[in-house]
Fold:
Amino acid sequence: MWYTGIYLYENLIQSLIQVRYGKSDAKHILQKENIVMIDIYTERKDSKDWIFYNDLYFNLNTGNEDMSQKEIDLIQQVDEAKLTPDKHIETKYGLGTIRNLSSGCKTLLNIVKHPDKVVNVEECGPNVLKIIFTMDNIRIYMSRPTLFDIPDDAKIRFNDSDIVIGGRGYNVWWSKEYQRREADDL
Structure:
């Protein structure tokens, strides 16, 4: 199928870069050449650069930071909440604190405010994942696929290796991953 051809073409480009410059430099070179993408990691690693507990991380860190207009707009878009200057939120259910935002909204804000970290997106619903997959140069963790609309032009790299394009490439990659897991008895 045509998307398998795109998958193979993108992997060929990455393989050539890895052979010429080494695997550790491939990501840097791809970004330098303006090939922007979403990095997905499917195996959990314990690292200070990873956020697994989004609610806790948000409540202790991100929620205490100033919010830009872009971030205030994301809060409105995801939770239909208005952020007040004193870090309260106004929703159709009443008043609350910024800590009362949904887990998906907190996850999205963790990604936006901490792009250097790998952020667990497994608690996000399709509404938030749809937003996440329109972003560039972010790093996320998901151990299983989720069904949602992925833009056809989204470039996705799995585990610093396989590059796919759009929802079809995403689905093909996960199908192969489940075949591998089954073969490896995982």
Remarks:
- The longest strand covers residues 38-41.
- The chain has seven helices and nine strands.
